[in-house]
Structure formats: structure tokens, C-alpha cells
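Suppose a classmate hands you a notebook page containing two proteins, each written out with its sequence and a corresponding row of C-alpha cells. How would you begin to make sense of it? This section walks through that situation. The first entry is reproduced here exactly as it would appear on such a page.
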Amino acid sequence: MSELLKLFQDSSTLYGSNAGFVESLYERFLADPESVDPSWQKKFTEIHDGAVYEIPHSPVVERFAQLAIKSHGRLAELQGFTEESVKKQSAVARLINHYRVRGHQIAHNNPLGKTASPPPDFDPAYYGLAEPDMDTLFDTGTLYGLDRMPLRDIIASLKEIYCGSIGSEYMHIVDTTITRWIKNRLESSRDNLNIDPEKKRWLLKLLTAAEGIESHLQNKFVGQKRFSLEGSESAIPILDELIQGSGDKGVKEVVIGMAHRGRLNVLVNILGKSPASLFEEFAGTFIPAPGVISGDVKYHMGFSSDIATPGGPVHLTLAFNPSHLEIINPVVEGSVKARQDRAGKNGKNTVIPVLFHGDAAFSGQGVVMETLNMSQTRAFATGGTVHIVINNQIGFTTSNPLDARSTLYCTDVASMIQAPVFHVNGDDPEAVIFVTKLALDFRMTFNKDVVIELISYRRLGHNEADEPAVTQPGMYKKIRKHKSVRKIYAQKLINEGLITSEQAAEMEQEYQNLLEAGQVVSRPVLANETYTYTTQWNRYHNISWDTPANTAVPMDQLRFCSDRMQRLPAGFELHPRVAKLMDNRRKMAAGAMPLDWGFAENMAYATLLIEKYAVRLTGQDVGRGTFSHRHAVLHNQINNKTYTPLKHLVPEQGQAQIFDSLLSEAGVLGFEYGYSTTMPNTLDIWEAQFGDFANGAQVVIDQFISSGETKWGRLCGLVMLLPHGLEGQGPEHSSARLERYLQLCADHNMQVCYPTTPAQIFHLLRRQLLRPYRKPLIVMSPKSLLRHKLAVSTLEDLTSGQFQPIIGELDDVNSKQVTRFIFCSGKVYYDLLDARRHDNLKHVAIARIEQLYPFPSELFKAEIAKYPNLKDFIWCQEEPKNQGVWYQSNHHFTDNLDPHIKIAYAGRAASAAPAVGHFHVHIKQQKAVVESALYGNPSGK
């Protein structure tokens, strides 16, 4: 007998009716050797002995037969190896695979029941299998770890695994290591769903709490909105299991994001918020936190606490969230990223994000896709998020799933990142716990996102005053007859003899007694002694915007930084244009050339880094800069490798993170907001490719950046660089919509600046970190001024001075001769300056305001006071009259000028668009703006 045939016969799994299964494995091996287990790879490699076969033809069965015939006619020893048995085994293999791929479609995971009939391809007859085959032994592969089982038992096992309370989607994942891992976890043991009696009683306690707080609030505060969790109470056991399991795996922090539904339940039953405190909020007798001016509704509020776990304390943070649903997703991810950076090397496994979603929101909100798309990128990866989608099967108010999405499942968007999805019945708490453990293990093993869809229902309407039966009569007939998950599970434990009905009732009453007493009802909350990071924000409260900061840098420090920025690895070849730019920067550092914007900006970053502050800069083209001015990330023209000099200044320096982002505004800006609210000592910057790109992130700006402090007391030092200026390039990309930011300004909530010199951006960026003041900074950054011949600075401008909110007249004018004062902001200043110098106008003074909010009233009055004979005050802007500064800020001029001084506007007429579409029209308009400012009659206003 040949050695190959002996190998074949000695391997019991290759015998007789198993051959069809072997054939299917072999076809997979020929297509992709890595798609089968290593042991099979070894066997197949030896058997086909280097022969090359075309796919899909698989000659393995024929090959075996030939080997047997050549070996003294021993084919009979192959125990029933017939064409029919091969076909049957192949059919069984296809059926098994079909359950793995599509079993979720017929899973019994809807607590309200399924109405659709099973597809015909789940019928064994579809594969040519009939009743006589039911008791035939077939090879099972790895199903339950048994080599062979009767077909009847195979189908029963498949239904139990893939069609019970859990529907598993994972076969779409191309990484076979991942699919094999999930398959083995699902199929390897019948004991997967077994839970010990003590854990079952704890589960009932959690469900009792989840139901109990809702009924208590319903009875005590009749008619008040709370966005109840009723119908989806199993979300509480999910979160409890995630926290306890995370702690057991060494996790130290869990950051949670969720919209309003169920938030009060989570606050009280998971994070340990005092029920008495919550009741005060319902009654309107609570005291707002320091820094909170407007406050917010109770179901938007955040919270933090420390909870004991088997692995030690875990710090929980529930993020503040407005009603814009999924917009919290990137904010949480950004906060988690900051915490992971702070934690150091193993940060991704010591801090994890958990995001709750609604079914309609998960499929309907674009920021979900943006956040998912960010999950594995260098700039925004957080090592995997556990997503919990609470599917109440009605969406938000009255929607029908036919109108809520175009996909089979609300979770289908997650397939874009090949995340596994587990659809679990919310009325089966034990299945919920199994899925939660599986999801957490997956996240910690592969550092990738995973989705749990909790299929449940909403017992009440969208809010407690809504009547859902108006639009969903059929569903709510079922719901009103349907027992709560707590009652269902209590009865199950009673039937199992684990508790008595009296004990179940006592558990309910004990919880209500604790609520009445206002006592904490969650797991014990630990004293917050180990988590001290919140105290790092204390020094930034109640600080004035004009608190001074020494932003100047000694000359030797500047030149040191410049020298380090010029040092490149051996063999690093720059593009000729970049080489020229670097050579110019060398001359600037030597004082041989005026400083341009790119040099000053890079020096701001470098000097902060060597002072051990961190710098993080993201946006769609930030490494080079949209207008090719920054070149903080250099590209080797030989091998396309990159080098970032800012990361290699000195051995002990601050962390520099500079990443070109994906093409997203809302997701990325939300991420950076979350990061900046967590790390006060990082200069965190988001740069729009063009200023108007921020339009795509307006929700983040309105709901978080401008109002996060006044609503929630959350400080934030985020910088937004928004290229702005009318350059004759058309309506789009001309305006960063300066007026919108000014409209949002109040209560000293943020800073809006429009710097016009390199020294100004240098001092402005350094001031943002060096001053003990943390408010968002909105910068109207330049385009043409990046290389304007007059928009330059000197080294001395960086080694002395500071950011100037107002830059007064710089030419040598006789202040007593000045009767006309032109005030402006931005690049129009240089047009005005050129024209005045050309016309030699002695009676006109020109000044720039570089900080538009908070408005520097005292500096403004001091500037005006220089001109005792002033008659006319002209505000000049290049934006249309209904845009830009005029309508939002002219009250500051009125409030701070003497009544005899006439105030006039010089600029474009009001317009629906930010700019005209033709260059020659733009030039004509710009000339008219300048002439109006210099020569217009203020009385004609």
C-alpha cells in the first residue's frame, strides 16, 4: 500500500460518508489554504503533492479513489465510499454552512413573535435530504466538537445554536481567524448558555430594578417625560455584565454613550446615582452644578462613579448627550481615545467605549457610519467599541420599519466594517448574558467593534404622554397582553425551583423600599479616591479671558526648534518644492527672511512640544495643509515613507499626533470635542479643508462646542481652524460663516478670532494652552494671506509681545489729523492699507480687530481715544452685509463710541450666497468695498 493511501486510511475523518465534507473543505483549501484549519492544510498539501487544479473543480474524491485502486484494489476498504454518499455528505455540509450564514433570519429572537415563513432553503429537501437520511451518521466538522452525528441531531443542534434566542451574523467577515473564533464559541459546547443559580437570581434582581424604577417614576411623577426603558429592561443586565466582565479583564474605565431612552434607568441602577437626587430633578428642587447656567433636562445629563468588579474598581462615565441621538458616538470615542493616550501603552485594553443606539437612529443617522468608518483608522481607533442597539421595533415616534430603513436589519450598516452582529431576544435574559460575554471577549481579543441588537419592544409611547396605538394598533394589542421580561423570568426561576413566588414579590418590595428611602440601589459605589483626573480641570474654572500668559519664546529656543525641524533621516529626499520651502524656513530662522504663516505656526507647535505639552492636529489635509503651507508631515520621494519632525525634537517632549482624517466633518469634529474635554493640557486642533466644510458638523458646534459649558459645566479647549476669505473662487469655500459663530457667542462661552499675521497665530495657539483658560477657540484662518507680501512677521515678534486682540494703526499718521477711523477684520485690511498708501490719505486711520469675541471693549475704547478729532467710524468687511461681523457685533461699536461719532457700514450688499461666482465681478466688488470705506459718506447710511 502506498504511503499516501495509508495516510488516507489512517485518518478516520476521511472515510466513507465523510468524503463529501472533505471535498468541500478541499475546494476551500484550493481557493484559499488559510481558510481551513492548519491540520487540514497539512493533509491536503501532502495529498495533492504539489499538483495544480482549477477551481471550482475539486478532484479530491477522484484522487482518493485513484490512490486506492493503485494500491492493490483496496477501494472496498473505504467503507461505503460511493457517489451517493459523497453527494449526501456534501449536501449536509452545505446545510450546516447555510445555518451559519443565514440561520439568524429564522431565529426565534423577537419577543412579539415572527410572522414571516422560513425560506425554503432551510428545508433539508432543498439539499436532496429526506426522512430516511435523518438517522444516518454524517460528518459534522466542528459542530459541538463531535465528528459524526445523525442528521436529525445535526439539524436540532443547528437550530439551537443559530435559530433560538440568538441570531448570529458573522460569516460575512473575511478574516477567517475571526470567523473560526466566533464559530467555535457558538458551536463548541452545549454548556455555553448554562448559568449558575446564584447568577440567575442576580439577573432577576437586575430586571426587578430595571422595571422597578420605571414603575416608581410613573406613579410618583405622573405625566412627566422620562423616556422609559420598559420593554427593553434586559439592557440593564447587558451593561452590568459588560462592566463586571471588563473589570475582570483588567479594564479600568468604561465610557458610555446613549441617547435619552433608558438613561434615567442606567443612571440609577448602574452608575449609582442617588434616587433622591433624581427625584429632586423631577420636582425641580435640585441645585445646578458649578459653571452651569442654562442647565439641561434630566434625561440628557451625564454622570461618573467607581464600581467594584472582580478585577478591581472600574470608573464609569456616562457622557452628557443632547437629543441629537447618535451625535454622542464620536464624542465618546474621542474621550476614550484621550483616556487611552493618558493610560499609556496598553490604553486600548484599559479603557473601552460602550455605545447604546436606537434601532431607527442606528440605521438612519449618518454619523453612525462616520464613527464606524473611523474605528480602525490610525487617528481615531479606540480598540473596538461594544455597540448595543435597543430595537423596540417602532423606531422613534410612529415609524414603520418599511419607512425607517432600506435594509433587512437596523444593524446592517455595521457590516461596512465587518463587525459581528448578535441579534438577541430581549425576553431571554440568559441568552442576553451569553451574548454579552461573547461580545466583550471578542472586543478584548480582536480590538474591533461588535454589535448586540437587543430585540425588544416599547411598552409605552415615544414619551409617557404619547398614545402609540394610534399608529401601531396591531403591535400594541400584542404588547398590552405581553408579560414583562421580569415577570417571564421570575416565573422561569419559580418553575426551576430556584425561588418562590413570595421571594419574587419580596425582591420587588425591597427595591421599592430603597427608592422610597432615596438610597442608592445599584452595586455599591466606591469612594472616588483613585480617579483624580477630573480635578485637573479645577484650575480652569472662573478664569477671565484676558488673564495674561507669557507666550513669547527666547531666540535660542526658536532656533533650536527650527534646527530640529530641519533634521531629516539619512536618504530622505524631499520634493523640490518642499525642499525650497524648508530652505526658506532655514533663512527665516537665521533672520534673513521675513517669517511666513507656515513657519510661525510650526514654531508654535514645536515650542509647546519641547515644553512637554501635547499637540493633536486632525483634518482632511493637515499634514501638508490644504494650501500647501504647513508641511508638518514630510514625504520621502524615493519610497513614499513619511517623517514628522515635530515628533523628534527632544527625547522628553510632549506627544505629537498629526493625522490626515477621513472625509468626515461631524464624526471627526465630534471626536476632537470629546478628546479636548478630557485632556486640558493638549492643544487639540481640528482644521476644516475649507471653512464652510464645518457646515457638515453644525450639530457638534451647536449642541456641544458652543453650549456644553452652559448646559453641563463641561469645559473644552478645542481649536477649530477654518480657512476663510473671499478670493474670487465662487460662493462655496469662500466663507467659514463667521456670522454663525458670532451668533452663538454669549456668557463668554468661546473665542472667535481672525488673526492676520504669522506672529498672531503663533501667540494665539500658544496662549490657548499657556493661559489657565479653557474655552473653544474658533479661528478664521487665511488662504491668500499665507503668502501675502505684507502678512509677515519678524523673529522679534515671536520673542516678545503677545496675541493682540486689536492691532492699531501701524503707519506713521498724525492722530490729531485723523477724522475717519476704519475698523476691519481679516485680509481686507491689506487691501485698505494698499489703497490708503496709494492715495496718501492723511486723515484716515485703519485698525484691525483680531478677537471678535469676547469683544475687547477696553482695548477698543483705548484705540478710539487716540484720535481726539474723530468724526466718522467705518466698519469695513468683505463679506455681504447680512453675513460676517456687522449684524452680530455693531452693538459693540454703538456701546463704546461717543454719540457724536457717525457709524457706517462699508462692504458688499446683503446676499443669499456668500460670494459671487465670477472672478472679475469679485474684483469689481472688492474695489468698491475699499472705496466705500475710504471715501463713502457715513451720513448716507
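The notebook's second entry, a different protein, reads as follows.
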Amino acid sequence: MNAPLPDVPEVRVVGLPQLTAGFDLVERLDLAMHLKVHGPLEPVGGERLAALSDEVVLRGRGGAGFPFARKLRAVAQAAIGRGVRPVVVVNGSEDEPACRKDTVLINRAPHLVLDGALLAAEALGARTLVIGVTRDSTEASMTAALSERGLSNRRTSALRARVQRNPHRMVTGEASALVRSADGGPALPPGRRVRASDSGVGGAPTLLSNAETFAQLAVAARIGPARYRNTGLHDEPGTVLLTLSGAVARPMVIEVPTGVPLRYVLQLAGAPPLPQGVLTGGYHGSWLGATAAHEAIVSRTALEALGGALGAGAVLPIGPETCPLGEALRVAQWLAGESSGQCGPCRLGLPAAAGGLADLLGGGGPTALEALREVTSAVRGRGACKHPDGTAQFLSSTLSAFADDLAAHVLSGGCGRETRGVLPLPAPGRRDPGVPSGERLAVDWTLCEGHGLCADVVPELIRLGPDGFPSVADAPVPLPLRGRAQRAVRRCPALALRLERAPSEGQRRPALPGTPGRKALDSGRS
């Protein structure tokens, strides 16, 4: 069983270090050591900073890969048009079990991240800086870094800077969830998609990007675009940070120039010589088969051309001794449990998809496969955030990449291999305080008459299927929705709905609703 990754695993570098410069000297670069290693940094004007970002082809390193210059210009234009001060937000909420690159940067080089954020704040005329974190170690390191620079959240400060601590959950890193928490709300997506560049923290235009993106900006501003472009590929210059885990001898974060063969990076981490598959981009990413992984280079464009993804920079090989579908099931169940529970695709779809994969592995045959494909397709594009889309992408990629294993399970009852659990997940029993209520909704089908009042009261948790009867997912009711769930129970005229204690993590097995003719999601848009 693969143990959870530590906050700061081993760090290595291929070629000359940029982001990881000085890591061979000290465990953490305080301000004095940071300046010795990197030197001082002069302010850069707004348009010049955007032009620099264009010249070095800087894209967001949190997963989506959005061009940083476009985001910077959009925030500036919105702020000028509205006559308000923008806000800068550093997203250090790296809560995916397979990702540690941003956590390593904040723990070991917090001032490089702050350099980029302060450059952007100065260029935009921002007077508020928020750094979102979810770990004790990142909170302590960034709080110390702000203190070392004399930055605080006092009203009299020219720049009000603060660390925003949020619960340790997958959806916390979603941009809208971080903005919502910075405004004093729960660290959950708000249920509607609004661009932070238009309306973010406090309703102001907000520049939000992850820690590595700001660190890359600081490096480019120091060494200049010509020198920055001397490293890596012409169309994707510079270096990237990758987190290597899964079936490797040495889990690590590694800085590599773009263009390095992926097989070389895997070899450095002690991956199997012939991996069965390599998950690229993390748990919202895509699988590469053994042949594609051997041919791939570290590049967003090159990985996508082979069906992979750079995503959040996680690379996870698995060896031939484990069942890939069983590994995917463990991840799918965890992803379903990380839902914010605020919309149908997350609340109903993700547990149903994980349950569908479980049914397939349990001998459900072609019927289970068809049900899994149907619910995965229904989830796409319908969520309040990108979590359902990313989970659906992971499951679809799994079915495509391991077609032989899929056929063995569907047609022959199994592939003959056990699930070793090589993909890292949080330690069993970890719960984030205050998010799930510990209760779930249950329907007594001997009493239900299909009145549909429950779906009117709490549509986030209950949907009506094509037959007019409710579909309820087997997952805990989130605390913010518990009051309405209780109201739905009281309003049921047939007394068919109840709240009951949810099973523990070890007992839970999300599954497709077992009543014939009922589906986990209807076919309409939410």
C-alpha cells in the first residue's frame, strides 16, 4: 500500500535549477538567503509585465494552463473600467494527494512565490494580497515569510497581506472556492461560474493563480526573457515542477526543463522499466499507455497530443502487478467523497460513477459498463465547478487506456490481479472538520409514492428520475444543506424519507441506485 506523500518529499533537479535554486544550501530560504541566492528584484510596469509573460509563454501551472498575460490584462482592464483596486490571490491550496510541487515551493522558497505576487500587485496597483493554504506547514512558512518582509493585514498598511487557511479538501483549491473563503464564506464553490478577473475577492477584479505560476514570473522578471527562453522548448520555454509518485522507489518533486523525455524522469524516481500505464496531470488527468509514456516528453502540447495531460504536474506510473481498474476505483471513490455536495453532478453523479465502476469490477458485465459510461457522460459540463468534469475525464481515460483489462473484467469476470493500492490517497479516517454532517438521506421504497416534494426542497441532494421517483446518492449530507434535508424529511407526505447515520469510510461503497429504471442523473441540464 502506497503511503500518503509527506508535505515536502525529496526534491531533485535536471539541469540548472531556477525555482529550486538554493535548495542544496538550506531547507528553507528565509528572506536573507533568498536575496543571496536570487538577488534583488526591481518593479515592472503593468504592460511590461504582461509582455514579459507573453514572451516566456507563461501559463498557469495549477492545471488549466490559462495564459497568464491574458489574465493579467483582463484584471487590469476590469479594474480601470470600474475604478476599483484589484486583488491578487496566490492559490497554495494543493490538496490533491498526488501533488506536492506548490507545497514544496511555499515551504522551501516562499519568497520566490511572494516576489511574483508582489510584482503583479505593484503592476496592477493592488492593495490586497491573499495567500490561500490548507496545511500547517504552508501556513507557518508563508506567515513567517510575510513577517520577514514586514507585511501585515493592518488597515494602515500600503499593501494588506494575509494568509487564508482553509480546510484540506480537493474542492478548496477551486478558484471560486478560494475567493468565497477569502470573503468569509465556506471554502466551497458558490454554485455559479463567475470569472475572478471580473468579480473576485470583495467583488473586485482578482488576479488568481497558483504558487508555481507566481514563482515562474519572479524568475522570468529576474533573468529576462532571453535567458529564460534558453532553457526548454522554443514554444514552451523554462522549467516545470513535477510530482512523481505511484509505483516509484523514491517519490519526489523534480524540476526539469521542458522537452526532457518522460521516461528519463520516471527512471530517476525508480519507476518500473515497463510501466503498465502512467497517469499524467493528477487525479483530474489522463492515462498514457506504456508505449506513449516511452515516447512522451515533458511538454503540455506533447502530452496532450499523446492523450495525456500536464495538468497540475503529477506523474504516477503503475506496474504490471496491480489491477489498473481497481486502482482507478480507489481514486474514484475518494474523488466522490471530496465533492462539495452542492450540485447534482457532484452530489449524485460522482458516487454513482464510482459505484458503477465497483459494480463492473464485481462482475456486473456489459450492463454495468454501459451504466458507468452513461453516468460519466451525464456528469460532464453540468457541475458548478470543474470537479465533476475532472473526475469524468479520469474515468473515461481509464476505460480507454486499459481496454484489455476492461474486456477481461466485463467478459471474463476479472483480470486475475489484485489491487495493490499504489496510487497515493490520504490516510484512512481523515475527515475535514465541519464539511460533511455524518448523515445521509435514505428512501424507503415500500412507502415512496413519487410526490416529488423532497426534490423541490433540496434539489442539490435529490433529483427526480424519468419515472418521477427520487434518486438519492449514497454519500453524507453536507452541513450547509442539513437543515433543508431535515425539512425535506418532514414534508414527505408518505413518510418515506429519512436521515440516517452515514457509513464510515471503511464501510462506504457508493453504488448506482439498485431500483430498475432509475438513474443517478436525469438527462436535462441543472
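A careful reader of the second entry would note: DSSP finds 17 helices and 14 strands in the chain.
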